[in-house]
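pasting for the record
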Amino acid sequence: MGAGMQNDTGKGEARIVTDTLEVATTRVGVERRFLWVSPTYARWAGRPASQLVGRPMAEVLGAAVMQGLEPFIARVLAGEQVQFERLVELPGVRRHWINWVYIPTFDRSGAVDGWVSTGFDIQAQKLAEQQKDEFLATLAHELRNPLAPIRNAVAILGRKGSQDPEVAWSQTVIERQIDQLSRLIDDLLDIERISRGRFLLKKEHVPLEFIVDMALEASRPIVNAAGHHLSVLLPSERVVLDADAARLSHVLTILLKNAARHMQSRGSISLSATVEGGAVVVAIEDGGVGMDAEREAGVGLTLVRGITRLHQGSIDIHAAPSGQGTEVVIRLPLSRGAAAAPKPEPYRPARPGASLRVLVADDNRDAADSLQRILALYGHEVRVAYDGGAALRLGAEFHPRVAILDIGMPGTDGYEVARALRHHNGPQVMLVALTGWGQEADRRRASEAGFDHHLTKPVDPKALNELLARVAAGR
């Protein structure tokens, strides 16, 4: 009797909580009928609780909604706790994002007899995330735009071939800093994608040696410029990872560059790897002044941690065993799949091709004019337009073989220009989007508009000329 009363009291207290909080709670049986609903859920559904209890979910929510919920229902009925987000349209909440949690319930024999669901309105959070996404994308766009003419101007200086060593040194510094700023912009966006679960890895069976080679190639200019000695020791046996080679090599690149920056010139950096059980352990040690991992975990290290975690790996940063400097240790699981994919053929620059007629359209005059100048130095015939309308008129007169278009031009934007050029010039014109908008959605929209390539500012003029050379060669 006492136990029963205590249990009833507990149920009553729980009912007070669910009736008071702004949480939509339901109890659903295994046959998918509502056994109980909270006042908040009833308000969301736009009906009294008495009209919901005992009715099948499908009658209340509709067949289309139930079809979307079935995968989650199947999991909870299998005994799993499930959490997911859905855009809900109910009379009482209209079109809102809701975070749902399904928790299985069990009968006395231990069999699942239904579930309890709780729903939290996260519409404000979603709007804030959307605003943050838009802010970061706009920030990246605004930062990339001025970098484009700077990179083009430096490339022009390089093509002029000044013999002054101070000028050559200055060009190298500017180019290196442009690369660093561009990489920081990309890293900021990558960190945001990781935090939102939207960072996609393209995994394949990759030799560790290939990943390390990519990182050494990317980091060696900074290491060599400081006069550091870099030693590399890899396992004698073949080590294969299930990894996104580009992303994982970027992790090692960041760590090698950090090591180079935390030392005075002519220091020592070592990269070693060993196989321990079912994992490879990569250690990067420098002989610098040491690094407080928590204090100095900036954009680069934040990205390193995120990418490593997505590869089911771990990272540890501590004082080097020698007592001076820092050691970063990354542990990554070995591949359990098939043999590694063959190592890609080394990059071979395309041979210079014939002169092409190139249309450049960009409302940023410095970007357009500097690109025109560098492409002309490469031997191409280039015309420039500073808005979409002018690009359309010039395209009809000039009949370009290649059109390099900014997206965000006033009036007629790059998408409209691309569609019109494709319509009037056919497939023989190659359309290149050269823009500060670099999100996956931007690339998808560019492809839908008919662009053949989507390049993010500031593009390397040499790489762009390589692309034009392949066009001229018919590839």
